[in-house]
Structures are given as C-alpha cells and as structure tokens.
Amino acid sequence: MRIPSEPLQREQFYLDLIGKCLISREERKADYAALRSYFLFGSAPEDAPAIFNKIYPHIDQLSSFLYSAETTRFSIDLGAAVQVGEQRKIRSMQRLLNDDWLRSNTDQVCSNALLWSLCYNTSYTKLIIGPGGSLNPYMVDPGAIGVLREDTPYTDRQEALVHTYYITKSDLYSRLYAHPKRDSILKRVTTSFHEQSSDVPEGIDRIIMNQSDPTMMGNVNLDLSGMNRYKARVAEDTVEMHELWAFNDEIGDYQCVTIADPDVIIYDRPGEKMFLKGELPFVQFCPNPQYDYYWGQSEVQRLVFLQELRNKRMSEILDLLSKQVSPPTALMGFNGILDEKNFALNRAGGLLASDMPSAKVERLAPNIPNDLFEVIREVDSMFAEASGITPVLAGRGEAGVRSKSHAESLSRLGSSRAKKRALIIEDALEKVATLYLKCIQKYQPIMLKDDDGNDFIPEQFTDDYIVKVDAHSNSPIFTEDLRNLAFSLHQAGAIDQEGLLDLLEPPMKQLLKEKLLTNKAKQEQMAMLQQQQQQQQPQKPSSPPNLQEVA
Predict the structure, then answer these.
(1) Domain ranges for the chain
(2) 255 within 8 A of 233, measured Cβ to Cβ
(3) Which of 94, 342, 375, 494 could bridge across to 489 with cysteines, CB 3.0–4.6 Å?
(4) What distance lies between CA 334 and its chain's CA centroid?
(5) What is the rounded distance in angstroms from the CA atom of residue 393 to the CA atom of residue 507?
(6) Within 10 A of 28 (CB to CB), how many other CB atoms are there?
(7) pTM score, two decimals?
(8) DSSP 8-state secondary structure symbol assigned to residue 388
(9) 258-289 pLDDT, tens per residue?
(10) In what order do the strands lie in the sheet with 282-285?
C-alpha cells in the first residue's frame, strides 16, 4: 500500500488503518470469553462450573496428538542454487537451532499457542529481539490482534496487522531511554486500568447477570465468594499501545508504527530495524482453517452443545439418584394439587401433608433405569468423533482386534484426521523455526565449525534455505512409522549407526555418538594391529610334491 509522506496525512492514515483492522475485535473478545469459560469450566461464563468438564481433557488429548514439544527437531533444506560447500555447515547450524529452540522455551510457547488455538480459533507466536540479539518468544492472544482483510486467510497475505497490548507508564519510560522526545510523549499519553476490577464477588455478579430470570425455588445455597475464574487483576495504571505493521510498497518492507493512547505516534520505522526485512514477527497457529475467514474455526465451539447436553443429562441423573435416596413423601387422600404441592412432590426429600382423616402416607421413589449412563457414554463418543480421535488412537481397546499388527493398522488408518491437522501445525512450526534461524544469522555472531573444522559465523551461511520439521517429529502419531523406517534403512545399508541415532533421537544421544566413535576407533586400531601381526609372521615353507602322485 502507498503510505502518505505528509505528516498529518500520514498520521490520519495510520489511525484510520488501525480502526479498520480492529473492526471486529470487541465482538471476537466476547466470543473468546465464552469459549474460554467452556474450555476451563465446561459452562457459560454466567453459569456455575460443570460437574465434569469433558472439553478440557478432550482438547488436552487432541493437542498432545498434534504436537510434542519434547521430540520436535528441525532440519535445514538448501535451495537448488546453493553451492556444495554450504552443506558442510548444515550440521552445526541444525544443532545451533535445535539447542536455542529448547533453551529459549520456544517449544513450550508453541505448545501453549497450539492449546489455545484449539480453544479459540487462532493464536500467535511473536518473536522479539532482546538485548544482545537474544530471541524472546511470546504467545499472543487473538483478541489482541486485528487484520485488514478477515476474508483472506494466511497472515503473509495481509497488508496490515495491528497488535494491541498494555504497558505501565514506568516501563514505557524505561523503554524510551534513547527517544529524543521522551518527556513530551509521556506528558501526552494517558493511563487507565487494563481491566476494571469490581469489589463485588463473582457470586453476586452471576446473580446480577441472571436477573432476567430471577425465579429461585427451594433451598438456595449462594456461595458469594465464587470460585477462581483465572482472571488477572491489574491494579497499576497501564497505557494502551497499538503496534501497526503495514506493508510499504515503496521500500518493499513493512512499516512498523508504535502508537500510544491517545493517538501519540512514538515510532515510525521500517520493519527491518525491528525484525527482518519483509517478514512479520507473528506466526499464526490455526488448526482448523477456513478459506473465507481468516480466524478459522474453533475446536471448542463445536463441542459446546455436546457439553451442554452432557451437563443437562448429568443434572437429571443426579436429581433422579437424590430422589431414590430420599424420595418425596405424600399424604394421599386430599383433593387438588397446587403449584407448591407439585414442587414438593418433584423434589428430593419433599413432604406433602394433608389434614384429611382418610389420608395415607406414600413414598414416591422413582424407578432407576438399568443403564442410567448410556446417554453419557454416547455423548462422550460424540466428542471423540467430532475431533477424529478413535478408541484405538486414544489407547483404549476395540472389539475385534486380534493382534498387535491389526491394532497398529487400525491406529494408522484412524489417525488420518489428526494427521491432517498435525501437518497444518507442522507448517506453523517450520515458519517459526525459519524466522528463528534468520534472526540468529542477523543478530547473533556466534563462532561455529563446519564438518572440515573451519570456523564460520551464522551470517556467513547461505540465505537460500528453509527449515523443515525433521521426519514429522512434531507429532507422536508419526513416531512408530519413523521408528520402523529408521530400522529398515539401517538394515538396507542406506544409513549407518550414527544416522540411526539421529533418526531415533534416543536419550543421551550425544553421549551415545561419542561412545560409538570411540568404539569405532578401537575397532579400527584392533584391525590394524591384526593386519600388522599377520604381515610380521614368517610364512611356512610349502612341502615338496609327491612324485608318485604327480606321475
């Protein structure tokens, strides 16, 4: 897009662009609040938590199938035009990437981003360059992001993106240590509470939110202290900040604009000074993309009605069991049933009395069905069907399975839906790893050695490469296939023992490699000694031929 050069027009252009990007933010934040409540508590924000929240363990299990932070490792694929000598540097660059990936906790940040992308519909991992070129990954909530075109998928295709965050005034003062207009900027910005906390307990909040249907019948136990809803409380005044990334056609790079409330432009600079040229520091995690909706589909949203059905059925079962333990009691022999009497007959331990002399006492215990939890089991199976988790894939037995190979075949075929989403997450991980390695090349002058023992720094490595997840190691679903493939390649002689260790990634792999090299050197030394001994031994003279046998 074309960004005006005149200061007033440029400022108005930025503010108008931010407003367009955040057009649906408040609506989405309300939806995310409801999805968060169902994910954590199995109920709507205004309702009491469910007796058993089926959504959370289900999503937790699904995310474990899609991504394993412990086993994920990366490899580097060079471009077709790269010189042969660059291949000698790949081993050191791969080790540097994998070590820094774990050291900076990027694996855990990506795991958290995946979990909440299943809860909402999208989440982000943002890479920030710290002091000394260090990389600090952060997860960003989708409610803090806005894009210009919500009808266009993929972040790389967006012309503008806005990140909204909050910062204290003291922190802003320290970050503007090199800004020439620091004092004037701080005088213009305004601070407010990030989230206005209320002195009213959450139990009272729920009563107020339910005032449209204030009917309360029977004994009402109000827990006014509520429960922990995992909501952060911030008492310090904060400044609302907007970080706008708009692609500037004139420079072929994003323009990064930092604006503080109320509309105070602090920085206006090319993205190359903040991150990498032509790259956004945001990587989207969207396990269920949709071709005409940028944010994608929420996994929790498709489970909400099943959880509601489960909650309703559980409340009915508990009510039925309570009536069985303490059935209602009625004095028979009176005329007419009022609403209060009907309520007493439908409540556990209820008592309906009459002053008629012909009345008799009768306990109205309900009949308990033989299979009371059949509907609950059917709803649980619907949860698994909604996300493509078969019983064999979940580690449960299946009727008709006759052998281990049969179970492995069923697991391989039943995991196809989970594999499809695991490959989508794999693309996001590869994007994060590629940006990570490029940042290492630009900001970290670390001394490395290639396969020939020559010194080089990451910046001297080629830029024509992409980082790939090595052998689909991000998902446990592919583990058994990778294991079988590794042993098959070793038996066929396609890889040696060191290559087998690289594919299997066993514990203490570096120690095993060192022992393997030590044993190999000892074997070569023993073979050389045996060869020398054979050469030093005198040869025995051959016996003369027997003349009779020759004749």
Answers:
(1) 328-364
(2) no
(3) 494
(4) 64
(5) 25
(6) 19
(7) 0.81
(8) T
(9) 999 888 999 999 999 999 999 999 999 999 99
(10) 135-140, 123-129, 282-285
